[in-house]
Write a structure and sequence with these properties.
By secondary structure, this protein is an alpha+beta fold. The chain has seven helices and six strands. A six-stranded mixed beta sheet has the order 2-1-6-5-4-3, with helices on both faces.
Length: 242
Amino acid sequence: MDAPLPPGSLSLRLVSNLNAALHTRLAAERAAAEVIGPDVAHHLVDPDGLLGLDPLRATELDDGFARLLAAEPDRWLLALPVPGALGPLRGPVELNTAALVAGEAAVAAGGGLALVPHRVGPSVQWRVHAAARPFTPPTLYEAERELSEAVLRAATTLTHLDVAAGSRPRADHGGVLAPGYPPRARLAADRAARLLIACDEALTSDGAAITLHEAEVRTRELRVVRTAAGQALCAAAGWPDA
């Protein structure tokens, strides 16, 4: 049985392989193949011609990957938006709405464009959107510290209530970042991904909560940890200066 994937895994694959191709010796062709991974195909849909691609037809990711690298030479950012917390996204509304529906996006750090994935059967289409310059994400140090504090607070609160947080995050999930990332970023991303998966699984049950108050406190604490884990994953994926 395949290990569950963290939320935003499509954009995470794209962002980390774009960054690896920009800042390591990972060839663009290999990076594009890593993004496609087990899927049949990935295509870029550029209706407004932001990448200079044919607006009337989809372009295979292999053929358009170099355009993405040229469009953003610094780094790409991962967005895992939820209502009320859009991460690096700062508009326009069309982009924010599409990213909220998908739960993820890949954003050029210098602004100008972002990509939002949409599954079409066994394939993926990446819709190219105009994007305002994104907010600067927290540093990896800041995000890791916030995640550790959130985990500690949740553990303390739920232990006091004698309520289960959920199953322990599995440590057998493979690395979620592309080759070439610094070890610290890779470790932080793997931890954050495991916690995201664990929180999502835990939120589907009541953790043996007896009262409505206990259930509400448990849900609140898990959502705080989930938000912090998402921020840590985004910070790790946004290397080089994570």
